[in-house]
Amino acid sequence: MGNGINCGAALEVNSVNARLAYVDFKLQFMGRISRADLKSAFGIAEASASRVLTEYSRLRPNNKTQKTNTIKRRSFEPLASFDSELALGMLANGFNSNKIFGVTELSYEKIGKIPNQLNTSEVAMITRAIAGNYAISCKYLSENSTNHERRTLVPLAIMYDGTSWMFRAYDRSEPKANKFKNFHFARIRNVDEEHEIKESRQHYHEALMQDKLWNLRLPLILKLHPSLSEKNKSKVITDFGMASDKEELIVTERAAFRWIVEKKWYIDARSQEQKLEDAQRGINRFYKFELSNLEILEKMECS
Fold first, then answer.
1. Do 62 and 76 meet the contact criterion of CB atoms below 8 Å apart?
2. What is the DSSP string of 15-70?
3. In terms of DSSP H, where are the helices of 143-255?
4. Phi and psi dihedrals of 86, rounded to 5?
5. For position 116, what pLDDT does the model report?
6. 168 and 157 in contact (C-beta within 8 Å)?
7. If pLDDT is split at 50, 70 and 90, which confidence band does 11 have?
8. HSE value, Cβ hemisphere, 13 Å, CA-based, for 168
9. In 3D, which of 259, 262, 254, 257 has the Cα closest to residue 285?
């Protein structure tokens, strides 16, 4: 196996490589590994789990502590090469050794993959902070703000909208009342972990359970937008799996995701005043749906 695991299709997929890759994955992206983790993931006995950890330590003696099996951040050298998107996908859906070694049931290829979009090292720092319940400091290149100063964030959860990987975090640097916000992994820069600082531990009011918009689920009543031609209405009905005789779609989403869904699905969530103002200015935007219960949703969000 040499000095590392080459996660390519040419490498023989065997139980030893898969277990070693799992240890590497857990350390890099979660910050720790345990015998219980190995037993649960592979259905092996305690003795077998111990042998895996011993072999891993032989191959990478400076990657983890011996007693607690936690990552040694300063000397950690990955045994396996993990793509950031692959790692985030497995954090969301569970470890899958077939994905690591490029094994698929059918021929598969991702379309339009952006090279070097995500910094694996910084992604790992953020996911370790989620697992360890502590803060990070970083710069964030927001598309809606010119504030690119360092922020202190407490990462809480990861999300994927089908295009971009994001994370939910409590922003300690935010002066406004609502400090729970969504952040794109691709817009993060210069991450520093603050795991050794006592004040950086997650506080009760910063926990995900205290995030009102995350825990509030909204019923979005979407009607085909009146500006659509019959041809475009038919396209939308097909693309969204709607019944051919229906012009309404009802979905439930977290309030924290409403803006994301509105943008991605081209949903018209303007108030009547905004619509009149756009009409007076001659602004014509393309929409697929109209949000028909906007007032109710706003009341739910403010209650």
1. yes
2. HHHHHHHHHHHHHHHHSB--HHHHHHHH---HHHHHHHHHHHHHH-TTSB-TTT-B
3. 212-215, 230-239
4. -60, -45
5. 80
6. yes
7. very low
8. 23
9. 262
Q: Where are the alpha helices (DSSP H) in the chain?
A: 15-30, 35-42, 46-59, 84-93, 97-100, 120-132, 212-215, 230-239, 258-264, 272-281, 294-302
Give the dihedral sign, CA 19/90/131/188: positive
Question: pLDDT tens-digit profile of 250-300?
Answer: 999 999 999 999 999 999 999 999 999 999 999 999 999 999 999 999 999
pTM: 0.91
Side by side, the strands of the sheet bearing 136-140 are 180-184, 165-171, 150-160, 136-140, 188-193
Percentage of residues of the chain with pLDDT beyond 90: 82
How high is the pLDDT of residue 276?
94
pLDDT in tens, 139-180: 999 887 777 889 999 999 999 999 999 999 999 999 999 999
Structural tokens at position 35: 């015998």
DSSP three-state, residue 99: helix
Cα 262 from chain centroid (whole Å): 19
Residue keyed to tokens 């097909």: 238
- The amino acid at 135: A
User: Does the pLDDT at position 9 exceed 60?
Assistant: no
Amino acid at the residue 11: L
